[in-house]
Amino acid sequence: MRSCRIIRSSRKRKSSCCKRKTGEASRLEQAERVEGKTLQFRSMRVEDIDTICAIEQEAFTTPWSAGAFHNELTNNHFAHYLVMELDGEIVGYGGMWMIVDEAHITNIAVRAPYRGRKLGERLLTQLQSAAIFLGAERITLEVRTSNTVAQRLYAKLGFIPAGLRKGYYTDNGEDAIIMWAHLRRMAEEGEQ
């Protein structure tokens, strides 16, 4: 796995679990070229919330509110959110909670016009890299049973089904598949 920019929310408080490593942002920051454009990841900021909410509206039947994102960025010390920019335009975002040695992906989305270009894969890989950097040994997420496209992507990146949450999604009562990946193994395989 390649190392990219650390995911760390813009927070006003001085302490964060991320700050235990010195020089983390500069060490992990990386941009790459995609379709002749610059693809870059950076920490989500409060001023990004309107754009993120527009992506939420495109991607989800029950989108998070601006207030929910504001709370994640300013009050939740477990939260780490990033945006994915293509030539400076936010085209996707992802977030996770880091609790002890486990990361839980809360949401991940790519704008509709940019889907099908492997940008979601790059975004998820970035979240996994950041989780490894932050000390996670495992990473988990939930996915709708009907979302087979996402399930295939998650499986490709090392996630395996580990359970079912009955009636998890409030909009239609759909079940969620719980998926896990063991990051330590992935990190060790990446070093070989």
UniProtKB/TrEMBL annotation:
Residues 39-184 form the N-acetyltransferase domain. InterPro entries: AcTrfase_RimI/Ard1, Acyl_CoA_acyltransferase, GNAT_dom, MshD_Acetyltransferase. It holds the Pfam family Acetyltransf_1. Keywords: Transferase. The keyword Hydrolase does not apply. It comes from the Bacteria. GO terms for molecular function: protein-N-terminal-alanine acetyltransferase activity. NCBIfam families: rimI. This is Ribosomal-protein-alanine N-acetyltransferase. It comes from Paenibacillus hemerocallicola. The gene is rimI.
